[in-house]
Amino acid sequence: MTPIRATDxxxxxxxxxxxxxxxxxxxxxxxxPSSMLTLTAEAIAVQARTGEVWVTGTPPxxxxxxxxxxxxxxxxxxxxxxxxxxxxxxxxxxxxxxxxARAMGLRVLELQTRIELVENHAAFRAMGFTxxxxxxxxxxxxxxxxxxxxxx
Length: 152
Hints:
Elements: E1 4-5, H1 12-23, H2 41-50, E2 52-56, E3 62-68, E4 73-80, H3 89-103, E5 108-114, H4 118-126, E6 130-135, E7 145-151
């Protein structure tokens, strides 16, 4: 399956449902809780207009949100339906992000994942990402997030 860019009109709620379903495993594992809990379908629609939203399948079985930053293309809310995992969908989305970054004149992909999600760290390393930074959410005196980057 080839990723496509989601644009209006689109079933933004379907993307939200996919993200909520696939991020649910984090509940009780990460602190503070995921920003996914406050994400709305309208916010995804806005992101599609101000950045990019990419999906695979109809209804979507994989998705990502791209946001251009000054020095990198930020890849957020990457999700793949459990039944579709292991089929290369995440890798295809990451490669799409790399293609988009090059088209925008950006040389780096960037993403963040929580410190507790070691399986995500391994998956991103397998796709060529390396740890580029560590940060803490406001009010925390420990590292809560790892920033990964990959040259494109």
